[in-house]
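Lecture notes, unit on protein representations.

Consider one protein chain, 239 amino acids long.
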Amino acid sequence: MSIWGKLGGAGVGLTVGGPIGALLGAFAGHYLIDREGALFGPQPRDVVLTTGLVALSAKMARADGVVAPAEIEAFARIVVVPDEDRPAVERLFRLAQETASGAEAYAAQLARVFADEPLLIDDILDGLFLIAKADGAVHEEEVRYLRRVAAAFGRPDDWFETVLSRHVELPDDPYRVLGMDRTTPIEDLRRRYRGLVAEAHPDREIARGLPPEAIRIATDRTAALNAAWAKVERERRTS
């Protein structure tokens, strides 16, 4: 069964629990209390990841006060949706925009569920940035929104700044993408770059059986790291 087929299951919200489970319950057509934990069995991690990304994407699209068509299309590019499931997913997206639960609640649940896979938190925030810049710019309200989400993930502000630098042109951009600075020796930069690429490579996501959207986000992050390293190499050759 595809991820989208699972979302309509009568008991999946009870299995997931928390605000994500409540959203799934509303989507399936029945009411669920927003409980801290799941009621029955282990949480289906693919459902939690995809639904959490949908919820945060929906909130992201409204962060600047306007839901641009480009933002919804960006969501559809990141989250792989078969044509026959698109109406249901669009309904889930709109439902998430209307929920009382804030972005921080969804982010905190994702952080708990994936505490053993911190790189997935990078994937989620990268995906949100892709949606934010789909209309050609990342607006100040969107950056503030994403900073709140990162804080709810339990990540420090310097970690957020590194992610921000992968998506927005900033001073010293290639070095910030690598989480280093211009005073770092080239060999240390090379080791850092290779380590980050090994962590972010899409093959790693495939081997762990993650859903397609995680693989797409990892692909984008790897491209950003490669571009940053190419800039650093050019700069060091000419300096």
